[in-house]
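Q: Here's a chain of 293 amino acids. Please give me its 3D structure as tokens.
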Amino acid sequence: MELRQLRYFLAVAEELHFGRAAERLHIVQPAVSQQVRRLERELGVALFGRTTRSVSLTEAGQRFLPHARAVLAAADRAADSVAEFRSSGSLVRLGTSEGLGDRLDALLGAFARLAPSASLELVHAPTLQRLQRVRDGSLDATIVRGSWPSTGLDFTPLWTDEVWVALPASHPLAAASSVSFVSLASLPARLSSPSRNQPLYDLVVSSCREAGFEPVLGKEFTTAQDTLGTLGFGRPHWTVFYRAHANLLPVPGVVFRPLVDPSPVMPTYLATPADRRLTPELVALIEAARATE
């Protein structure tokens, strides 16, 4: 059991919403979901009741809550007791986005080993806002997927992520270990709009065209929770998720499968100010990110 897991549990218990808890913690929602599930597995009980519309504490969760608060309060008091001896390390303000999945945990662990005296402040915001904040100096760097306006910025390659399809578990295509793009031609696609995520939209549409068809565009992708909540019901359709994100999203009624012919991948970069040299902490962050590949 980790203090991080208790903090994530407490945030969800107080917000009764995984998305709001993630915003409060300044991290992405899948990381919160993953750590809460790990805590539940370790305890051997469900702490939350989950539906596509609501989150509630189970009886076990209600009993666990005051003890979690007590442990975190004790940990804070222990840290405060030695605050005067603590050396001042560098703070790195890093922009993040949804969909980093299990890569984020791996990156944080590797960065802590490579730069033990530094600390990371994670900031979640839409991509264009994060890029502007890197330009104006309120963020030291941000992780971005795909190509974005580069004025005033340097982009350092970090990794590439496979793009997987999400399908209703009841659809015949879900029985295969992988899904060819051409087999999706007759199904509506629920994609993020170009204004929200131009690189991913372009990648999926170009992959469809490479397979010989124009995608049938259905309702726009909104949030992972809302989109997956409707995917397993009603008229069959499909959407896409990054593999690292899909690994953390077991959803009843939905399956995730690799795509083939073609097999799209999305490059990920660290965006930093073009007029500044990389600090040792940012170099360590790049090395930590590349170690997740």
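Q: Can you summarize the key feature?
A: The longest helix spans residues 59-80.
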